[in-house]
Amino acid sequence: MVVPGMGKYGQLRLINSSVLIIGAGGLGCPAAQYIAGAGIGTIGIMDGDVVEPSNLHRQVAHATSRIGMPKVDSLITHLRFLNPLPTYMAYPFHLTPQNGADIMSRYDLILDCTDNPATRYLISDFCVLLQKPLVSAASVQKSGQLIVLNCPPSPQGVFDRPCAPCYRCCFRKPPPPSADLSCGEAGIMGPVVGMMGVAQAGEAIKILASGLHLPPERRSSDGGSETDTERNLTQPTLLIYSYDLASAVGPYTFRALKMGGRRRNCFACGEGSTLTLEGIRAGEPDYAQFCGALMPPPTAALTPEERITAAAYDEARRKGELPPHVLLDIREREHFSFGGIDGAVNVPFGKLLMNAAKIKRDGGEAEEVLPPEARGNGRDTPIFVSWG
Ligand SMILES: [Zn+2]
């Protein structure tokens, strides 16, 4: 309370406010600890998963002794040790187009701590329609990002004053399905996602303590100026954290990109938007399809005769029934380092794609897609490809 700008009024606003944390994982765990520690009055936690051993390096509110427990119950157990005073609400299931509006409407501010694009768009659309500020973060491998959206909230389609953008204003299209890897598939560094979760809590506390989640007429002020913060939020900053020195981000650990304001042609918050709560509940728009989760599988490139199971390959090889061939393992280098089949040559699929793109651009022979060590003795050498 003695921090300048917070004061008694700020702390009272926190006690009287409520936060819904969607996702009790790598972002949700650190965020929830600081939200609970700050004395926010009501804290809702939503997640349909149970605690697994592979979660624990980053989902620091869970515990080895609580493996198998619903994450929501595990996190609330942890938070009660920290601060027993807030009201904790448990939602041990995933957010859906059907259950979202009812639950989210009970909260002042939403934290998106999920890890899949379809849910991000769903949460943002609900926030637009319910007029809730949204603190959104994401993290994978060695980088993370954070942005405050829809704050201060304003009704759908309003453009007579500067208004804050929604998630769709900033990210019109979802990432391609191939880039949408889960943390289990792509890997993730604990401190990176932790840093993003802590920053989410920081932004949420700032918004709630200054009353920016409320309409202007309901912000009882203790004399501080809020107009600058409000103006800045209508053109929010995308914070990017990365400690991957080899990436295009370069040597900068933190970067901040100024984003635009609300877009007139935004599907959710723009002029003439047809998005409604009733529509979402009835399945319009189709979030899974928008994000490509239900894209038809690619055309089968190989005939059944050209396929072989790992067990059949192993047996044929041990019996000496296979001709001289190249065994190509196309998993990423880190996966291959855990173990592979004897004699396999590791060329990650991404490298094959890059070689193919280079040949398409600069010309060259098709077999140059494979690096020399993976070509065998000429173009007649059979190639067995392993990716599992
Ligand atoms: Zn928008």
UniProtKB/TrEMBL annotation:
Biological function: Plays a central role in 2-thiolation of mcm(5)S(2)U at tRNA wobble positions of cytosolic tRNA(Lys), tRNA(Glu) and tRNA(Gln). Also essential during biosynthesis of the molybdenum cofactor. Acts by mediating the C-terminal thiocarboxylation of sulfur carriers urm1 and mocs2a. Its N-terminus first activates urm1 and mocs2a as acyl-adenylates (-COAMP), then the persulfide sulfur on the catalytic cysteine is transferred to urm1 and mocs2a to form thiocarboxylation (-COSH) of their C-terminus.
A Pfam family the protein falls into: ThiF
Annotated organism of origin: Humicola insolens (Soft-rot fungus)
Positions of region (Disordered): 364-388
Entry-linked InterPro entries: Rhodanese-like_dom (IPR001763), Rhodanese-like_dom_sf (IPR036873), ThiF/MoeB/HesA (IPR045886), ThiF_NAD_FAD-bd (IPR000594), Ubiquitin-activating_enz (IPR035985)
Positions of transmembrane segments: none
The entry's keywords: Nucleotidyltransferase, Transferase
Designated name of the protein: Rhodanese domain-containing protein
Domain Rhodanese per the UniProt entry, residue ranges: 321-385
